[in-house]
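Q: Structure tokens for this one, please.
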Amino acid sequence: MSDDAGKGGVRSVQLALDVLERVAGSSEEIGVSELAAQLGTTKGSVFRHLKTLVERGYLSQNSQTSRYRLGIQAYVLGQVAASGIDLLSASSDAIRDLRDELGLSVVLSVLQGRRLLVVETQLGKSTLEIGVRTGTELQLHCNAQGKVALAFAKQLSVDQLPGTELPAITPFTVVDRVQLSHQVSEARAQGWASAIEEETLGISAIAAPILGINEEFIGTVALVATVQNISRKVDAEQVRALKKAALRASWNMGFKGEF
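A: Here is the predicted structure, written as tokens:
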């Protein structure tokens, strides 16, 4: 890519963000002409960005007035950010101490509606660092975090997972709903879940819930590592340290019990 093309791409992104911020900052619905005047650019350029933002759900257009307001995706993103910040604040010491104690990567996720999103990864200390990118949406049936969410979130259940068949991500993915339901019940009873090579070959995880004031499910804290470090015979010390970190975070979120 040439420097000119690169600069043009950056300018386009900047204009898209300017449009989004102007719509968000307006006390009422706003039109193309007003936006173009405020931003000092052409109506055609503004319209192209508006069209994309509407298609992605960040803006919504009033069909009667053709004017624009914030869309549902902007609201969802804001909710994720707010929840993530609260959870990060409540969990920061716990996940740092967990990473330092075991030397493994620690992944923090938050539940938004029926979506489980990664909000923080503390990389481990091994030469092979295992992490999950912030913002990643986790599937619910093939990782430890998802099984914990299915076990503790009232709005989630195995029966509600989409599709007639659960997708096999690896040869070890649990695709039978009866077997998955059994694992979810087990996770609820013991306070943690594991997933060994179910999402990525060679990578395993164990996870525990983070609960709030009324025992509502907020998110998960998970240890993620190679199968050499988290094996099929899960280390009891890893489970103990994980549950301790999850409970610390839960207490900071207002939870009063034990698990």
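A few notes: Residues 3-70 form a domain with the Arc Repressor Mutant, subunit A fold (CATH 1.10.10.10). The longest helix spans residues 72-102.
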